[in-house]
Amino acid sequence: MCGIVGYVGFRKAAEVLLDGLRRVEYRGYDSAGLAVRTEKGLEIVKEVGKVSDLEQVARGRNLTGCQGIGHTRWATHGGVTVTNAHPHADGAGRFALVHNGIIENYLDLQEELHAKGVCFFSQTDTEVIVQLLAHLRAETDDMPTALTLLQQRLNGSFALAIIDAQEPECFYCVRRGSPLVLGLGVEECFCASDVSALLPYTKNVVYLEEGDTARVCTKGVEIWNECGEEVCRDVAIVDWDVSMSEKDGYPHYMLKEINEQGAVFRSTLKGRITEGRIDLSNDLDWDASKINSWKNVHIVACGTSYYASLVAQRALEQWTDCHIVVDVASEYRYRRMKADPSTLAVFVSQSGETADTLAAQRKARSEGAHCLAITNVRGSTLAREVHDVLLLKAGPEIGVAATKTFMGQMVALYLLALFLGEARRTLSAAEAKRLAEELLHLPYKVEIVLNRQDAIKEIARKYAEKRNFLYLGRGNTYPVALEGALKLKEISYIHAEAYAAGEMKHGPIALLEPDVPVLVIVPRNSLYEKTLSNIQEAKARHSAIIAVGTDGDALLPHHVEDILWIPWTDEEFVPFLAVVPLQLFAYHAAVLRGCEIDQPRNLAKSVTVE
Ligand code: F6R
Question: Shortest CA distance to 69 belongs to which of 168, 201, 162?
Fold first, then answer.
């Protein structure tokens, strides 16, 4: 929540910072600011609104320096005002600082500094950090020492970028609990909350470890660990390129990302199915005795990633003999759930930075579980903390509403389920081969649905002005109903509730009236007739029914008003196809309502605070 960028080199810093802020803007977008070191000293520019609003103001200031830091904010402490926007400066104007995270003990520190005569101008927890730093720096010989002491005084999570007016050749970074990556160029260096801001400039990056402090200069970086000892960190090469984070002619990132789903499916499968067998040997070094030692599989995630996990739960229950538990991370971390060495604990997170998912992982690991991350971000905190990683290979996802990574997560989780089933011999080799072959066909079927966008848009047009929706699904399409309803809520602000279709009679049916459409996922599967009965119950209350139905189902048009058609696939794989029309339905409804698609109100892409 909040994006950070920093630059030192030969380019005009303000331009690099504004470009970087646009690329991390999905992390927070209520206000933005930057600080550049010019011949006049530190010049700070802040504005409420988007990075484009900041750009207008910055352009009028003609900031010429080659060293600076920038920030895009998602407010936690203090309202959305210019004063509360970052960067924040100390009283003397020597330091400017940007922060992503939360300082839990800021009130105590504020009181302590007040007693020393420090005045505060904002309502943020961040201003406390820069004022405290100014004091600590005055009492120490050098900045790395002051920053080590600063870390010791702060409780909470933070990624910081700081410039000191007295050090013209560098800026500093500190990381604990919030992501921060350094970019190494030729005669220039960068920092950012994630690599997408660095892609136009360099692919050589250093992921800071917990507690690291870095001095970032034109010639390179020096790093100290939390004890203040100088350390060496590996340079990683990013395998994303800049075109992956561009809109590519689409009006919105979300639409681009929905349309990429066939390709994401293929790239997540690539190299993981050989001769009809699931082969995860390049990712997971698991032998038979390890795999057979697990009796339980816990899958833990938040939001859309949780819904992908619920889909996978059904597949794992079917193909393995393990006891499968799926939970949201914010619950799991506080439950007395036993995660001992007989547990494979799987943490599903697009960003790999979600605070609750990270905390849940640390808990499971401390109890002895074997921890696997399923994530899209190679150097993320989650990926670095777990025993094993299965990457999604979806490319950067910029739209705040997750779409293509939901697809990638389901693919990775299904690969895992098939792999475990075959290794534990709960799934025959022949059946595993048949299922793997259908997995290979699915990207084409996803693309068939994507080619039906005009029809989906027309149906969205009919319902875009409704205020409430009910979504229903059964079995593995129930989590798809949850995900479809979440997409509609997030980007169109239409209220939508999702239920397991069989639950409708137990309460939600009271909501039904002619103006509340019901969207039902009703593929030709073993639960088809049961779901048709639920449709009758809704129709009897005069609700309009929109169905997701299987091509060739001649019965369905007699029962419903509108149909979002999907090709036939095995029952197990319906979620991969059924989610696509729901994403497009939400997208087009939101566009027709004039909503902000890629940056919906109140949301931020990575929830890095609890
Ligand atoms: C919804 C959405 C969120 C995320 C959730 C978890 O469109 O994007 O619900 O799925 O915040 O994020 P990750 O997967 O990064 O842990």
Answer: 162
What's 153's domain CATH number? 3.60.20.10
Give this prediction's pTM. Answer: 0.91
Q: Which helix (H) or strand (E) holds 377?
A: none
Question: Residue 470 domain-assigned?
Answer: yes
Active site residue 2: yes
Q: For residue range 240-251, list pLDDT tens digits in order.
A: 888 888 888 999
- Residue 33 DSSP SS3: strand
Beta-sheet pairing, 545-550 with 189-192: unpaired
Determine the distance separating the centroid of ligand 1 and the alpha carbon of 94, expressed in angstroms.
38
Token pair recorded at residue 416: 């895992």
Among 332, 348, 354, which residue has the most ligand 1 atoms within 8 Å of its CB, making it the best to mutate? 354
Residue 605 among the catalytic residues: yes
Position 607 confidence tier, pLDDT thresholds 50, 70, 90:
confident
3-state secondary structure of 418: helix
Q: Are residues 120 and 223 in the same domain?
A: yes
490 lines ligand 1 (CB under 6 A): yes
pLDDT digits (tens, 9 = 90+) for 114-173: 999 999 999 999 999 999 999 999 999 999 999 999 999 999 989 999 999 999 899 999
